[in-house]
Specification:
Number of strands: 8
Strand content: 35-45%
Structural class: alpha/beta
Radius of gyration: 15 Å
Order of helices and strands: EEEEEHEEHEHH
Length: about 180
């Protein structure tokens, strides 16, 4: 695997890690090559969160990675998608909940809109879906406050957006 990033949690003290979560995430592009960002607002044990994230979530045991990312995209954004390429794996830690995340990121083209079917938790925390140009997406993530869960999200997703930008700049993507 060519692109592997590893990030330690600098926000919360490490005590132990007792579980791993396999996560599939996407840089989802519309027909204008704009990136889908979820505006997430919540208050939980991590504190207050008001930031942008790429769509994605936990991979189910019975599904392949590509199936999981396409399912998550449809659940959270309402779009069926077509995978363009695998981008990278990001290993990160959420010390507060004792979890190691293995995140697998894909570049995906949004296809047909079929309507989202968010889980109850997602309905509560996802405030909005926005498509923005990739430079704006990078700026939005780069401007996230450098503490708490916002920093964890920023350090996980900013390098992925930069990788996606490099690929898009080098390989013009058509629908």
């Amino acid at each position: 695997m060519k692109n592997v990033f590893h990030f330690e949690d600098q926000c919360y003290p490490f005590t132990y890690t007792d579980h791993k979560r396999i996560v599939v995430r996407a840089v989802l592009l519309n027909d204008k090559n704009e990136v889908a960002l979820l505006h997430v607002v919540s208050d939980d044990k991590f504190g207050h969160r008001d930031c942008f994230e790429l769509p994605g979530g936990g991979k189910r045991k019975d599904e392949r990675f590509h199936q999981g990312v396409l399912r998550e995209i449809e659940e959270e954004t309402g779009f069926k998608g077509k995978i363009i390429k695998f981008l990278a794996k990001v290993d990160d830690f959420y010390n507060l909940i004792h979890r190691n995340n293995n995140n697998y990121y894909y570049l995906v083209r949004a296809d047909k809109y079929v309507g989202d079917h968010k889980e109850d938790y997602e309905k509560r925390v996802i405030q909005d879906l926005r498509f923005v140009d990739i430079d704006t997406a990078i700026t939005l993530l780069d401007n996230v406050k450098d503490d708490g869960v916002g920093l964890l999200i920023k350090q996980r997703e900013l390098p992925i957006l930069k990788l996606a930008k490099e690929y898009i700049d080098e390989h013009p993507i058509n629908k």
